[in-house]
Amino acid sequence: MRIEHIAMYVIDLEKTKDFFVKYFNAVPNNMYHNKKTDFRSYFLSFDEGTRLEIMNKPQVNNIKDNKRTGYAHIAFSLGSVENVNRLTAQLKADGYIIISEPRTTGDGYYESCIVDLEGNHIELTI
């Protein structure tokens, strides 16, 4: 069994798509638009077959609270310490908030964590 895809609502569908294309080499499908409900979505495919569905509809808000249950972050395996350091530095230079600089965690992972343009946490790891 495998997870087929993960989905998240976003406020700015196009900017979010462009973010994942630019920094994570995502390949988007053609946007789906349900004209009756004004629901829109893209499926973003990544190298290893994982997909992320980003979705939007007018009545969705962007309230984030880190003291809640539910998904905490998305983690991307970049393959090496150098790739984690490089992408973290690039995102920082491009103005994204770095929650945690690259480091080895207590459980042995080498990772950093950034905040995307919609306030979602993205972990960069080996």
Provide a descriptive summary of the structure in words.
The protein is α+β, with helices and mostly antiparallel strands and 126 residues long. The protein contains two helices and nine strands. The strands form two sheets. Strands 1, 2, 3, 4 and 5 form a five-stranded mixed beta sheet that branches. Strands 6-9-8-7 form a four-stranded mixed beta sheet. It has two domains: 59 residues, 2,3-Dihydroxybiphenyl 1,2-Dioxygenase, domain 1, CATH 3.10.180.10; 55 residues, 2,3-Dihydroxybiphenyl 1,2-Dioxygenase, domain 1 (Roll). The protein is 20% helix and 36% strand. A hairpin with a 5-residue loop joins strand 7 and strand 8.
Could you provide a short overview of the structure?
By secondary structure, this protein is an alpha+beta fold.
What key attributes describe this structure?
9 strands; globular; 2,3-Dihydroxybiphenyl 1,2-Dioxygenase, domain 1; alpha+beta; 2 helices; 126 residues; 2 domains; four-stranded mixed sheet; 20% helix; five-stranded mixed sheet
Draw up the topology in text.
Blueprint lengths: L5 E4 L3 H12 L2 E2 L3 E3 L4 E7 L5 E6 L17 E4 L3 H13 L3 E8 L5 E6 L5 E5 L1
Parallel strand pairs: 1-5, 6-9
Antiparallel strand pairs: 2-4, 3-4, 4-5, 7-8, 8-9
